[in-house]
Design goal:
The structure is a single chain. 9% of the residues lie in helices and 51% in strands. By secondary structure, the protein is mainly beta. The protein is elongated and about 80 Å long. The two termini are 34 Å apart.
């Protein structure tokens, strides 16, 4: 029966990928805030996070990663100082009732603050416009996820999320006030397979699968992305007993709807389960590539930081507070 589950999941994945990518629409997707990395640990590793398991932040990358939660409750709050004075706030929480007998349930929340923008309106004066109210564009995504281990090697997970974006009001002569709000439901789905050879794992995920969205007349798609990944603790090969130490190496291959394919490369060295040092690289990006970060863990609480040089846009800083209970 479990083999039938695995075969069924693989077939569903193949059908979804086939239907999701009939053609590539470069630079024609909206809600791009859904593509911005949330978790500092993941971003310090170049977002090579498809096969990393055991924490609630997997909801932002591959929901199957929640299936082997390391504690009864796992919660993380994230803060990202993004480019152009845009700020991202996010929260993820996962819990496994009855020691995981019924799987793992999760909640994710993402909010984006674009800052203040001075509104204007066409007007028959020398300047051609007048100033109207100051407005604050914003966006959010709220999701509910579930993950479960089907066997000791194979796990699956999914998430449904409601996402919306408000671009503020606009006043159009003879048409009145437009609120410029769009929303839709989106779906994430993923799997992870432990090969049985040391800590070698494979995984895949599909994120932001949704119907077309419209603000007025022109429709657009969400930033649908398909990823496959592989990861392994290299110390399993080079050291027989490395208790308290790990050297995780992860590689993801990404196929986004609105951009050319790229590779995520990440490495994390953990010392005595207390200090983690991370480095990553993302290929085929115009303004950034290298990422770095660190994490400090103690008494069920961890603090993570990630740094990304972003070319002409300056530096991006991410902070995560992670709590285990």
């Amino acid at each position: 029966m479990r083999k039938l589950y695995v075969i069924g999941v693989i077939m569903i994945c193949c059908l979804m990928v086939k239907n999701a990518y009939p053609q590539v629409k470069l630079a024609q997707t909206g809600f791009q805030f859904l593509s911005v990395g949330a978790d500092a640990r993941a971003c310090g590793m170049g977002e090579a996070f498809t096969t990393v398991e055991g924490q609630a932040s997997a909801l932002f990358y591959n929901p199957a990663g929640m299936a082997r939660l390391g504690s009864s409750i796992d919660m993380a709050t994230n803060y990202t100082k993004w480019i152009a004075d845009i700020t991202h706030y996010s929260l993820s929480c996962a819990f496994k009732p009855k020691a995981g007998r019924y799987g793992v349930f999760g909640i994710s929340v993402l909010f984006v603050d674009y800052g203040e923008i001075q509104g204007t309106m066409v007007w028959p004066n020398p300047e051609g416009y007048i100033e109207t109210e100051v407005f604050r564009p914003a966006a959010y995504a709220i999701g509910i996820g579930y993950a479960r281990a089907l066997t000791d090697k194979f796990v699956v997970g999914g998430q449904i999320k409601h996402t919306a974006q408000s671009l503020g009001k606009s006043v159009i002569p003879d048409e009145g006030v437009k609120k410029n709000i769009a929303s839709t439901f989106a779906y994430d789905f993923g799997t992870i397979y432990r090969t049985g050879f040391k800590s070698l794992s494979f995984g895949m995920c599909i994120r932001n699968f949704s119907p077309e969205v419209k603000f007025e007349e022109e429709g657009f798609q969400l930033p649908l992305t398909f990823k496959i990944g592989i990861s392994m603790d290299l110390l399993d090969i080079f050291m027989g007993d490395h208790k308290g130490h790990s050297l995780l190496v992860a590689i993801d291959a990404a196929h986004p709807r609105a951009y050319r394919e790229y590779i995520n490369l990440g490495m994390e060295y953990e010392f005595m389960n207390m200090l983690a040092l991370r480095v990553g690289y993302v290929t085929s990006q115009d303004e950034y590539g290298l990422t770095a970060g660190f994490g400090v863990h103690q008494f069920g609480i961890s603090f993570d930081y990630a740094y990304t040089p972003f070319g002409v846009f300056g530096n991006v800083h991410r902070f995560t507070l992670h709590i285990l209970r």
